[in-house]
Structure formats: structure tokens, C-alpha cells
């Protein structure tokens, strides 16, 4: 026993190197966010003269004041992003887990056919034009919130992950015992499979929520109504053309005056912070289940 304990013991130097590596990786992840935040509270002249700095020559909160003056459109876009993320994640988890569970059952007659139906789009797809025609011409989802939700709702990769998890983690004996007791497939799925699959659900929910929250492309394709633009789409429009906000002034000033008073670079950085903070606050609640979901398939016995 002492021999095995000594064999598995990490040497102090190795432990120190691992800790140093994790500190470096943490800094690589955190410092860009810190730099963006510092740029958002820098003055326009400081950025123009010295560039982005971790400690700017001149501080200014004009960017956040500007966003507060535009709070009507910002909060509207934030509301759209939150609604799309919450509804899309819930619907996506429901559809993905049900599809994965059905495909994991070997006695399902259409198992082979539907597995290929799910797998092929993961390798090949119809392209952007076909997707646009289906969503806009056949489903008529243009300028509706469903155009931001349904195209990203189900991913072939997530379905395959669910299928593999259910096949390798849920024992057939449990399902058979419930069937003997008279339980149907819906009862098995809701009362047996789902409670056991919390790590999987959290992992899929995290993937979906990140995808919905960071998406701006669907808005650029299907949304022309400004009231339905997500926060990310608004940021993308600002980055492409700062006149997007200038064309919607909230004060009774001329367009040129409004543009001249606009701190362009700090505003872009401030909106980036506004986008990052909500999802960063949510992630710690998923982290425990996310890590368990990634590692559960590697543990046997």
C-alpha cells in the first residue's frame, strides 16, 4: 500500500510546474477581459494617442454614460438576447435529449435510419442559401423571434453526445424493470432517465446557452426589425458602422453633432463588457455539472 501511495505521489517540483501552468493559462484568459474593461473606461483621446493600455493615461466613463443614454435600445436588445437564450436553451435541451434517448434504444426500429439522418448533417449540410430559403420562404419566420431560436435549436453533435451518454450510462436493466412495473416510455424518460442525466443536461444547456448568447448571424440574415435585434447583433452593427446608433438619436441634436459626441472605441469595448458579464455570471452555476458531464464517460465500474 505504501509503495502504491509513493508511486502515485506527485513530486513537489511537478506540482509547482502544474500550478504555474494553470496560473499562466488563467491570466491568458482573464487579461484580455481586463484590457477590454480598461479600454471601456479610457478616454477617446487616450486610446487614439497611446492605444489600449491596462492603466490608461486618462480615465473616462463617457462610454457607459453614452450607453445609459441609449438604454431604451440597449435594454430592448438585451431583453431579446435573454429571451432567445432562455427559450432556445430550454427547447434545445428538450429536443436534443429526447432525440438522443430514442436513438440510444436498440429496439427502436428506425434506429439505423434516423442515426444516419442525424449524423450526415454533422458532416455535410445544404449551405447558407438552402437554410435561408427554408427558414424565410417555407417557414416564413422572417422578423420573428423564432428565426433566432429554431435554426440553432438542435445540433447533430449534441444529439450524438446524448445518444452515447444514454447508451453507456443508463443500464438496460433499470429500463426493463420500469417496463415490468407498467411504466411507459414517457415515464421512463421523465422519472428515470432525466434525473440520472443532470450532468449531461447541464453540459448541453451550457453549449446551447453560449451558442444563443453569442449569436449575431441569425439576426443579420432574418431580422430587419430593429426591435428584434439581439444585443450581439447590435454590437456587430456598431462595429461595422458606428452610424447605426447615430441614425437613432435619442436627443434633439443633428446627426453630425451626435456622431461627434460619440466615443466610438470605448463604446465598443463597453458593449463587449455588457455582453460578457451576464454569461460569465451564469457559468459558475453550470461548471460543476459541466466538468462531471465531460468526465463521466471516462469512469468505469
TrEMBL record:
InterPro entries: MetI-like, MetI-like_sf. GO terms for cellular component: plasma membrane. The keyword Membrane applies. PROSITE patterns: ABC_TM1 (PS50928). SUPFAM superfamilies: MetI-like (SSF161098). It is a multi-pass membrane protein. This is Sugar ABC transporter permease. It comes from Clostridium thermosuccinogenes.
